[in-house]
Amino acid sequence: MKTLVVHRSDEVRERTLDxxxxxxxxxxxxxxxxxxxxxxxxxxxxxxxxxGSHRWFKRIGCKDKLCRWCSEGYTEKLTDCEMEFISxxxxxxxxxxxxxxxxxxxxxxxxxKVVDDPEGMKFIRDLAVHCMNEVMSDGGRYLFYIRAVAQxxxxxxxxxxxxxxxxxxxLDRAVDKKDFVEGVDGLKTVLFVKxxxxxxxxxxxxxxxxxxxKAGIEARYGVLTTAARWNVHYEYGKGNYNDMRHTMSYLxxxxxxxxxxxxxxxxxxxxxxxxxxxxxxxPAKYDKLVxxxxxxxxxxxxxxxxxxxxxxxxCRHPGHPRAGxxxxxxxxxxxxxxxxxxxxxxxxxxxxxxxVLCPEKGCGCSIVWDWENKFSIExxxxxxxxxxxxx
Length: 391
Known about the structure:
Layout: E1 5-7, H1 19-26, H2 33-37, E2 43-48, E3 55-59, H3 68-93, E4 99-104, H4 108-116, H5 120-136, E5 142-143, E6 145-151, E7 165-171, E8 173-183, E9 186-194, H6 202-221, E10 232-236, H7 241-252, H8 255-265, H9 274-281, E11 290-294, H10 301-305, H11 346-354, E12 367-375, H12 377-382, E13 387-389
Helix pairs in contact: 3-7, 3-11, 5-6
């Protein structure tokens, strides 16, 4: 599932910090320039635990949030982890995966107020989800798998005025609470129904959400009589894996990616306000980029998903029961998965973000890295080593 890239030793290139992006970092954090320059200069070697004991190399990243390479790698890891769950869910349903969503925007004068508010981004993210549920859930009957992100910059011109907006993505399968039964042993019956916005209803739904969205923003930040039209528009998927992965990756991206693309592609030097650049690239405490809601929330999604996902998250053997069946656990008697959960707990998910599996065809085993010995790019080339990583 992971989108790791394998490079031959002759394909590996030196990482060089672009001088134009370096000037941007020097505006507010000159002490971190040397850290960014050192990213990926050294390599570490490892062997997989499979029969072939395949040898691999990978770069040692700086893990700085301002690093273009590390931020993009972390984005890909988050996307892979989420797409693994979504793929397993739709595979268990026997349906093709699809999504739909909304984008909530506001006038520029409100964007400045939201960005200056320490809890502004969290507020508009929660408000957008509330507006969507009020209009789409049929009085709370349907529970959606919602992934929402509040962003404070414009992807086309991040150095311009603040652009606070919210993206929402939903799976097209929702829990129908009308057929929701609570039993002694927990959830017994849940019906996942196809539910979402349709293009024929877009205008009506957008107007309803716009009214709630505008009222919520004005209640917190006051009424601006000169405010322009509030724009809430519908987005829909194309019904395939690549389309869903692309939209998830877009949600997870860091502002570093857009800033780097802007300064390195501009014909002439880009002017920017140092105060805004610092705010743009160093998010506040509550500016968490992505949050799950509904039956996709981390605290409850295992309870719902295990009713349709019947594979052990440790050994991938089938055996988890459908709704209404008795018993639980893996069909493999030698497996140690005693909890019967179809998807790992959050602690295991966190470890998966750091884990790299052997990309050798037919292997897929874990790789043990030797962190005590470091290699230069010349040493990797001399042994014709293969380098893996996210780009």
